[in-house]
Amino acid sequence: MNNLFFSRFTPKEPKFFPLLKGIVDVMKSASELMLEFVEKGNHANAADYYKMIKDEERKGDTLSNKIFDELNATFITPFDREDIHNLATKMDDVTDYINSAAKKYFLYNPNEMPAAAREMVGLIIEATVQIENAVNELDVLKKSRKRISEYCQKLHLIENRADDVYDHFLIELFENQKDGIELIKLKEIMFELEKAVDTTEGVGKIIKTIIVKYA
């Protein structure tokens, strides 16, 4: 019999919810640090900002590994093991993209970050708030289905806005940036930030899958 059948009659392990919330906290910290990096970063402090963001990325990896270990050790889980695994992995991927952007910013040392970078990181922060709202209510999914669905819909709208920001950034970059090396630097950094927003929508899709199965 499947996990869903057993879950109706057996107490569920609640330990996964704090671990998932911990990954959300890492995403929030990394995105807030990235905003500071974009706004205040320079050659003198770039290494410090990158180190702080890298530290958050490592915390996320530790929490993800803890979830995978618990999945192997737990008989009854609140949702399908695959769904918990996918959710943890996708949320950790958001932090990975933020870290990749920070690493490229540190290594490439562009002359100046465009306003679009601040806007994109702002959208990442908006998205992490919606993910936090959804994850905080997963343990009462049946009571919160409508609200969680709304959070996921907001993630989709944020991703659409990020697409627009990225498209306009590319147009302006190719029209105005005459230094080919600077063009490549900025394009690669912005690509990582845009992927971070894309991935937050992926988190929403996984949560919607959980809603369909369990709410």
From TrEMBL:
InterPro entries: PhoU-like_sf, Put_Phosphate_transp_reg, UPF0111_domain. Gene3D superfamilies: Phosphate transport system protein phou homolog 2, domain 2. Coiled coil: none annotated. Belongs to the UPF0111 family. This is Putative pit accessory protein.
